[in-house]
Structures are given as structure tokens and as C-alpha cells.
Design a protein that fits this description.
The complex is a heterodimer of chains A (626) and B (216). With 626 residues, chain A is an alpha+beta fold. Chain A has 14 helices and 27 strands. In chain A, helix 3 (127-146) crosses helix 4. Chain B has two domains: 1-96, Orthogonal Bundle (Helix Hairpins); 122-215. Chain B starts with 36 loop residues before the first helix and ends with a helix. In chain B, helix 4 runs antiparallel to helix 7 and helix 5 (124-144) runs parallel beside helix 7. Chain B has 216 residues and is an all-alpha fold. Classes of the chains: A alpha+beta (626), B mainly alpha (216). Chains A and B meet through helix 8, helix 10, strand 19 and strand 22 of A and helix 2, helix 3 and helix 7 of B.
Amino acid sequence: MGYVELNVLNNAVPAGAAPAALGIDLGTTNSLAAIWRDGRPVVLRPEGRSGLVPSVIHFPEQGPPVVGREARDSAVADPRNTLFSVKRFMGRGLADVTQELASLPYSATQNERGLIQLEARGRRYSPEELSALILRKVHDVASQALGEPAPTKCVITVPAYFDDAQRQSTRDAARIAGLDVLRIVNEPTAASLAYGLDQRDKGHVAVFDLGGGTFDVTILSIEDGVFRVLATHGDTHLGGDDFDQRLADLARTDLAAQHGAEFVLDPAFQQAVRQAAEHAKIQLTNDPEAELHLMVPHKRIAWRRRVTRTEFEARTADLVERTIDSCRRALSDAKLQPGQIDEVVLVGGSTRMPVIRRRVAEFFGRVPHTEHNPDEVVALGAAVQANILMGGRRDMLLLDVTPLSLGLETMGGAISKILERNSTVPCEATEGFTTYADDQTGIDFHIVQGEREMAQDCRTLGRFKLKGIPPMPAGMARVAVRFHIDADGVLTVSAKEQSTGASAHIDVQPMHGLTDAEVEGMLKAGYANAVDDFAARRVADLRTEIGTMVLATEKHMNAAHAGLDKESLLDLADALAKAKAAALGNDVQALQRARDEFERAALPLAALLMNNVAQKALMGRSLGDM
Amino acid sequence: MSARRVLPCSACGAPLETPVACAACGAVQEVADAATPFDVLGLEPTHALDERELRRRLTSFSRLVHPDFFGTADAATRERAEQNSARLNQAFDLLSDDARRADWLVVHLGGPAESQDRAMPQAFLVEVLDWNEILEEAAAAARSSSDVDPRVDALAVELTERRGAAQQALRKLLDPLPEPGSPRLTAARRELNGLRYLDRALRQIESLRLSRAERR
């Protein structure tokens, strides 16, 4: 007896799968999610797509913001309302980024607290809100790839050289996106996990990470499954975009001469030039020569120039050398010589440039690893770390460091260092302070991060006032202030007056960070958007579903005419027409009704078809048997 | 200084190799504020330490308390893992650095702190003046041109040798550990001051070299 196997559930999830968390690479140029599946990390790609979400947001004239590939495609047509490279603004103030802003087509301002705000379509957005939109899109894409809602628990990566404010901003962005961050992990460290270098029992690894907007290098030691970061160094203002700019400068100089300086400031031109430059750079990775080709239709401009790889490398040599300078500094901190590095790992799309591979190989005297796609290796490593955090394995351990020294401003503007850079995290230090005036009840603190000697040359993390010290003669109070940097690299400060035991918990508000209230506000706005997003998604899903049903029904109309009773046939034709009409509209409820009605009316046809299939199958079988 | 006390696990009673967590049952412990860096790494106070053994302890104890292994635990346990992990790292950083370890021992045995005795060993006094002169001139030269003062490289070699000698002198003074209040502690403090000077000077040379490479 034969039977027909019907696949009822398309996206069945294997039962008993361990709970998983996402590993998310939130990049300057692209973002990506990966997950731990069947004993290894895999990139989450919806069928036939790369899974890579361009970190670009477009605000159309109407409707919700568009994120990813579609947004990137609108960049030239609508440059003022298309925001990208948002990561460069995370946890920064306007003064930090004037250089970056000069070459961007959209505008930025700051709010009353000095927080940077990017403008699009007449509204201001914080970098955290924008990053949250990207994260939500990444989560959506991950859900599509999984065929079920992706986990909200996640590990998010940041450049190793991100300071406290930048890390906090990343955590805030995730919160606004409705994600539960298990850990902020450094990108290069994640990359080393992805390479499975724990298989080697002992050695030193250098991870060279040149992304779209940031660069860092990390030196690790590996011993018995323990990855210990020895040193990290980097430059949060150096990335592939800077290489693009050098090519873009060629076009700018030439066209400014032809059409006037005003012309090259046009946002559409800037956007076009940026994309042309990036395109030429990518071509120069494979070919010895490329054409820088620029079309600005509304200005009737078509400009071309040939660039050889040699010329490109000459124009960017100083950028390459800056990365090598960082390598020297990191090695010096790790107390190692280049020759003592056993493995070199390349991360970030910009490491595809031949000049980078050549120079890195030359400096370390070793051919770098390039087996993994440099755009994916960080997300894969984040998924490995997510698996560790979800209790998946204990054989591997990652000991990371804080990239910058933490200090307090003392009298005269000098700095007293509290935690040295490259301290393994979590780490903490307790410092004693006293009062300098009789009956002084408060002490002001100015916390900075950086390597310079004077507070004014370092980055302000925050200022706080310790209050509630009991009145006593000068120098009698003994206040112990505890500085704790957690495994995410984020600082918390608490204080205790030791003679009375009065304790105070201090939240350090980073200079360029969001207050809790602001995050809450954005969270609420996020939920409101989420409802809209949900409705929009539902409309799209219902339309697709109806479309599929219409196609399937129309395909079998002959069979319906032949096999159905008249009443069922009329009913079906009616429901079909109504569903087609509803699919043109946007109303969720109307769509849902039409779909349900259509499904009901199609039941007799489905039964008829099943019957036919079963009969055929049986027939096939008996024929085969004969 | 009294010998290390071995505490029982607060959950299962097994003797603890480290106060941060129990290797037998995995319970993360409440660590007393008074626990010394040696206590935290389960060691008797000593100047002579095998760096490999120290690293082994850091990693095996980290496997017990690192916050990564408590990603799904309750908030209180997570917090304690965070803190104990920080204690562990702090203790390792201190003990793995010869100078900081010696400094800690001198102070805890009742010897003078750096702020109380800034003197350097006699042998240093004349040479320090010469060394400072070379360093200052080299720094000034580095600011005005990219030329390299050849004396700097020779100085680096000399200071590195002196550092080795100072370490050996410290070992002689602190190994075995002197009695609390012993005059050897004052002598150790002075060697330590010399060592700190050498480390600062060597760092300065290193940063001159790095910025020289960067200027090209």
C-alpha cells in the first residue's frame, strides 16, 4: 500500500535544539548576524541572499524608514535623507566629528546636552536610534533566514578601540531595538574565535582589522583554549572610507576646477563620487587598473579617469603606514617582536586590498589567514561567543582587555591613572580620597579615558559629584571610590565613606551618552514603530500568501471545472476575484478576511487535487509493480 | 604576615583552592575585602613566583568565575562572578609584575612605601644624572628632527642590563621573605625605586623609538 507524503510545515524547527543567541556584527558599512547551529557558527542568510545588511537608512517622503540594500540604492537619488556611517558618531560629540561631517552629504547638529543628532526629512535622530533601526533590520533578516522569530538575546561586536561612551551607546542602541545584549565583544577578538585558533595549544596571534570606518589591531596569546588579549591598539578615525576619499579627491579637484568649488559641495554629487570611488577601489583589488567613472545626470556630467593600482597605492601609502604604526604600538605593549607572532588574521572588507595584505605580510614576516570571508568572520566569532554565553561550552575562554587607560583629573589638570590600558576585564581598582576643607560634604570627580598626561588631552567620560560626606575636619574623611570595568568594557563607579560607612552609588553619565530617560523614550517610540512595522510586515506577508494561492488556484482551474460541483466552483471563482481585489489594498483586516475566505472556498479544490494525486501515486505504484 | 588560611566552600564545605569559587561544586564565593592578591590566587606570599604557574592559576580559576560562563545565571550570581573575576585579574596583574609584587610585599611587611622613602641605591646617583641628560637631549632632538641620537640605543642596552641587576638584588633581599620590620625592607625599597626609574626610562626610550618610526 503506498501513501503520499505531504510536507505540512515548511519551516519545521528540529526539536530539542539548544537555546541560541545571535552574534551580530554592527558595522560601519555592513551589518550581519550569525548563529551557532550543529556545532559551528553559520551566517544567517535568507534564501539566495548574502545576509549582509548595508548599514544605511533612508527616510522616504512617506512611510517608515527603509534600511539596508534598498536604502543604499536611494543614496544618490535622495542623499540628504539617506544616513550611513552612523557608527562613526556613536558616543561622540559634534566637535569630535567635524572632519567626518565635512565629507558627508547629510547634516548633523547637537542638542542642548551636546549629543550629536543626524538630520533627515526634517527630523533629528540620535546615532543610537539609527543603529537600533539597523539592528532591527538585521534581526528581521535573521528571522527570515531562520524561518521563525530570531532570538532577541545577542552578542554585539564593537571595534576593540571603542571607548566607554561608544560601548554604552552600542548597548543603548540594542536596548532601543528591543534586543537583550549578553555581551559586547571586541571585533578582532571575535574574529580570532571564528578561526578556531584554540585548536593550536600555544602561540601568539595578531588580528588586523580594517573596516569601513575604524581600524584596530589586537595581539592575543592562546594557551590551552584560553584566548588572552595582551594588547590592542587602533584608530577610530581610519577605515576603508578614507581610502575611497583619496580617489574621490581626484574627482573633486578636477571637477572643482571645471565647474567651480560650489559644485563639488552638492550632496548628490558627493554621494555619486563616494560610490564611484568605492567601486573603483574594489575593482583595483582585482585589476591593475580601474576607471573612476562619474555620472551626475541632472548636471549633465559624465566624467572619467583611469587610475592604476600603483597610483592608488601611492595616494594611500600614508594610511597604510598608519595601520602599521598601530601594529608597532600594540606589539610594544605586548612586549613582543613582529617575528614572535605565529598567526595573522585579517578582518574587515578593506583587508582585501592587495597593498594591505602585502604590507601586513611584510611587517609580520608571515602570510595572513584569509580563509574566512573578512566581511563575515566577526559575526561568526560573535556567534561562537554567544554559544559560550548560553552555556554551550566551557572549554574555551576569552580574556579581553580595556583598550584605554582610565584616570581621574587631579589638581592642576594632570591625570592620576586608575586602571592602565590593556588591563584584563573585568577589572577594578579602589582609590582613597579625602576632603581638603573643613566640613566639606562633597568631592567633584572628572573621569577621563586616554593615554595623555593632561586631562584636557584625554576624552572626558563623565563628571560626578560625591555627596553626603559627613561634616568633619579637612583630611579626616576617608572616601573609597571603586571603579569597575565590566566584561563589556563599560565602567561603573561606586563610593563609600569609610569612617561612617555611608555609601553612594554613582552612575557615570558619559559626556556623549543617552540618559536612561532618553533610552526609555526611544524604547517607547520603538514599540510604536514596531506596531507599524508589524502591520506593514503582515500586509506584505498576506499579499504574498494570497498571491501564491491565486497562482496555485488559477493553475488548477481546468481540474476545478472538470471535478467540482457547480456551487463550489462559483464560490471559488467569487473568492478568487475578491482576494485579487483585496491584494491591491493595504488594509490588514480586509486582507486577512479575503485570505481566510479564499482558503475556505479553495478547500473543495484542494480535496479534489489531493484525491487526484493520491490516485496517481497509487496508479504509479501499481504500474511500477507490474 | 600570617600563613594563608584555607577556607571551606560556603555551599559544599570542600576546601577552597581560591576564595573566588569552589572547584568541587562550582559555587561562586563571597570574597572578603581583606583577601590579598596572594590569597586570591591561592598562594603563600612570596617574591619568587613562576610566571607559568601564575598564568595556569589565572586561567583555571577564570574558568570558574568568568562572567562568560554565567550568561544565563541570575543577576546576583552574575554580579558576583563579575566582581570575583575582577579580583582575580587585579591580583594577577599585580603579582605578574615583578616591581608591583615587590612593592606590595615591602609595604605589607611593614617596610617604607614609595611615598615614604624616595631614595635610590648609592650606585645609581651619579649615573642617573648622565642618563637623564642623554634622554633629555634625545627627546629634544626628536622634537626638532628625525635624526636618531646613537647614544639612545647604547643607553637602552645599559639600562636593560641594570634592570636585570636590580631584579637580582631585589630577589636577594626578598627571597626568602624578610621578617616584618627588617632593615632589608628599606634596602628593597631603594632597589625598587631604582627599578621604577629604569622602567620609566626604558618606556621613554621605547616611545622615542616608536615616534621615530612613525615620523619616518
